[in-house]
Amino acid sequence: MSQILDLSHLGTLEQVEEQHPDSGNFEDVEAGGYICKICNAVLVNEKDKKNIRLELDIAEGPHKDYFTKLEERAGFWGLVGYASFKEGQLGRFTKVCTAFGVSNPGYSFDPFRKGGADVDTLIGKQIGAVIGKEEYMSNKGEIREKNVVSNITEVSKIREGKFKIPKLKKYVSENDNSFMNIPKDADEETPFN
């Protein structure tokens, strides 16, 4: 049976950051490819959500155990990846399942075989992860960056540098309708007249 860490009773990421202002001084990891260990794996099999939620931490190098230390210090898990098995994502999902096996010799994760696969067996295994950055709006109204898993792949691909670091995903306000913001003194005709 999985032990699920749920700190939602402590508030949101932004609330925890506000309660622990020194967390801003915690050196962040850069976008890039990392060898990670799976610290927790949760099966989400609901009507609209079908995925395995993976809590990852860095397994090697100068940032080893970064997210475990962050959770101990700030009260939240800072790196989560998802392996979606929605119908439109099954091709990608099979590649992730293969990556679990290739990255951990002697191990196989095959949920397509009769009887399925135990998601708990993923805990403690290694996997390659490409970490990107995404902007978000904090409760203080500041644009900040957070770590996001942009790709889950084989450990060997990370070691060989066979991955692409995604560009920073910029924050776009829900009220951003700059496409239609035409200056009142514009000389040109609007294209939709």
Task: Please specify the SSE layout and strand pairing.
Elements: H1 13-19, E1 32-45, E2 50-58, H2 66-74, E3 80-84, H3 90-103, E4 126-137, E5 143-153, H4 155-159
Antiparallel strand pairs: 1-2, 1-4, 2-3, 4-5
Quick structural overview:
By secondary structure, the protein is an alpha+beta fold. It has helices at residues 13-19, 66-74, 90-103, 155-159, and strands at residues 32-45, 50-58, 80-84, 126-137, 143-153.
Structural features, described:
- With 193 residues, the protein is α+β, with helices and mostly antiparallel strands.
- It has one domain.
- 18% of the residues lie in helices and 26% in strands.
- It starts with 12 loop residues before the first helix and ends in a 34-residue tail after the last helix.
Mean of the pLDDT scores? Answer: 85
The largest sheet, given as strand count, sense and whether it forms a barrel, is: 5 strands, antiparallel
What are the secondary-structure elements, in order, as H or E? HEEHEHEEH
Q: Rg from C-alpha positions?
A: 20 Å
Beta-strand residue fraction: 25-35%
Question: Which keywords apply here?
Answer:
193 residues; alpha+beta; five-stranded antiparallel β-sheet; globular
